[in-house]
Specification:
This is Adenine deaminase. By secondary structure, the protein is an alpha/beta fold. The chain is built from 17 helices and eight strands. Bound molecules: adenine and zinc ion (ZN).
């Protein structure tokens, strides 16, 4: 039995495996510029975040109907359950669909058809987090938030993703204020490729409660001290960092130093279909390569539930935390 954990940094579009991409392409009459799944996998050699994003957006062309989004989410939930995920907070990128003529309702209702049955079907509780694309305008983000208003009973929070450098958090100040006024939780990618200053801005200007990635905080000791003091969770994605060359090799990953510094770290998969592993694979990889002790792994799992947006269901959080403490490693 795998260690129970929450996944807090997972882009549902990043769970599109090549096999499902071809299946959906055939179903929707979409022509992909790859002969087969092998040729597509060959394209998964990324130089940086942008080279990954190019492929990530290109493949979204196969996602067209509610059924497509339901199938995508169901495939993820099945894989996640097999790797010990008990709770998943799932990002989606509506602007990447709206711009192709796929409506907000198609995306949210499609995802919800899977998420609404996830507890019975996969034993996973879920939350949905709407992400704004930071390389699009603030006006577009605000329009997207407005388009989501009929679906807010299904959406827990907002996030910020896509190309980071040159798109500082401050650009989205008003959108995040509007999201907060609607009662939405706030997170943002910061310090993945962008500088530590973006992490500070995400906290101070956007009021985020968790930082996605946050890796580059390690360049600024005062920021580390603040993150420790304020118990700000970081949603790290080790295999993603290797594939996008944020770190040279997994052995160079600062996770052990971050835990030693007292940071509230969690381990997640980001875009598992592209980066070589789901949540459990990320745990296994850091255990193997970074030599994390069982107590460190238990700490990561505990942190994931502490950092989860389960404030409306504390009883469930305590149940999950008890599962973590009772877990015996094989
Ligand atoms: N790792 C990542 N960083 C920024 N935007 C993303 N969108 C999907 N994955 C992402
Ligand atoms: Zn991400």
């Amino acid at each position: 039995m795998p260690l129970p954990k929450a996944e807090l940094h997972l882009h549902v579009e990043g769970t599109l495996e090549p096999e499902l991409a071809f299946e959906l392409a055939a179903r929707n009459g979409v022509k992909l510029p790859y002969a087969d799944t092998d040729e597509l996998r060959e394209a998964y050699r990324f130089q940086d975040l942008q080279s990954f994003l190019n492929l990530y957006y290109e493949l979204m062309a196969v996602l067209r109907t509610e059924q497509d989004f339901e199938d995508l989410a169901n495939a993820y939930l099945a894989r996640a359950a097999a790797q010990g995920v008990r709770h998943a907070e799932i990002f989606f990128d509506p602007q990447a669909h709206l711009s192709r003529g796929v409506e907000m309702g198609t995306v949210v209702e499609g995802l919800w058809r899977a998420l609404g049955r996830s507890e019975e079907g996969h034993g996973i509780s879920t939350r949905l987090i709407l992400c704004f694309l930071r390389d699009e305008s603030a006006e577009s983000a605000m329009e997207t938030l407005q388009a989501a208003r009929p679906y807010l009973d299904r959406i827990t929070g907002v996030g910020l993703d896509s190309a980071e450098v040159g798109h500082p958090p401050v650009k989205f100040r008003e959108v995040y204020e509007a999201a907060a006024a609607l009662g939405l939780r706030r997170v943002a990618h910061a310090g993945e490729e962008g500088p530590p200053q973006y992490i500070t801005e995400a906290l101070d200007v956007l009021g985020v409660e968790r930082v996605d990635h946050g890796l580059r905080c390690m360049e600024d000791p005062e920021l580390v001290a603040r993150l420790v003091r304020e118990r700000i969770p970081l949603t790290l994605c080790p295999l993603s960092n290797v594939r996008l060359r944020t770190v040279d090799t997994l052995a160079d990953h600062p996770l052990p130093a971050m835990l030693d510094a007292g940071l509230l770290c969690t381990v997640n998969s980001d875009d598992p279909a592209y980066f070589g592993g789901y949540a459990g694979d990320n745990f296994d990889a850091v255990q193997r390569t970074l030599g994390l002790t069982e107590e460190r792994l238990r700490e990561l799992a505990r942190n994931s539930f502490l950092a989860a947006f389960l404030d409306d269901d504390e009883e469930r959080r305590q149940r999950y935390l008890a599962e973590v403490e009772a877990y015996t490693f094989p």
